[in-house]
Amino acid sequence: MLSQDPLGGTDGPVGPESRFVFVVYSRSSGAIHHIHQVVNLPGAEARTREQMEQTALSYVSPQTREREGADLAVLSVPHHQLERGKFYRVDHEQQVLSAVD
Hints:
Structural class: alpha+beta
Mean pLDDT: 89
Shape: globular
Number of helices: 2
Radius of gyration: 17 Å
Distance between the termini: 44 Å
Helix content: 10-25%
Strand order of the largest sheet: 2-1-3
Oligomer: single chain
Number of strands: 5
Largest sheet: 3 strands, antiparallel
């Protein structure tokens, strides 16, 4: 365990306690509108899955929310599944993220 200094820091690096990724997408097209990552460090107040999903939805633009409305959905994916520089869409039927060429 790392000891804390008087200013609230630690003696070394602190890894995340938990990590979540939520993808907001259109059910009909699979198009992704927002990818939301949540990283909780030790001591952070844990939020419920529903709260994290609602936060992810709140970051979608008002224009998209108005246009897509009830067609928007949220999918939780493992953080290591996303690769920088790749494009993705969601297969709603199978509830999986797939890379697009």
